Amino acid sequence: MIGHHFLNIRVADLKSGDGNWDEEFIQAMFNEDDAEMILTIPNLGWEIEDKILWHCIKNGKDDM
Fold first, then answer.
1. Is residue 31 a contact partner of residue 6, using CB atoms and an 8 Å limit?
2. Is pTM, for the whole model, over 0.70?
3. Is the pLDDT of residue 23 over 60?
4. Total number of domains in the chain
5. Is the pLDDT assigned to residue 41 strictly greater than 70?
6. Could you give the 3-state DSSP secondary structure of residue 27?
7. What sign for the dihedral angle of Cα 37, 23, 16, 3?
8. What is the pLDDT of residue 43?
9. Interatomic CA distance for residues 5 and 52, integer angstroms
10. pLDDT, position 39
11. pLDDT score recorded for residue 11
12. 3-class SS at 7?
């Protein structure tokens, strides 16, 4: 189950003031494997508006 602190997190929240990944924050918020994967995503500086996306399954139970 996803923790309540992740409910409103956006990509912009994972970036530092200079636009790069906030490595310290990411490592504090995610487990080691997930943080490592996030930090390998190229930060291209896209100026795209964040959107909340969630794909539901037919039985109504959402898992990660």
1. no
2. no
3. yes
4. 1
5. yes
6. helix
7. positive
8. 77
9. 15
10. 95
11. 85
12. coil
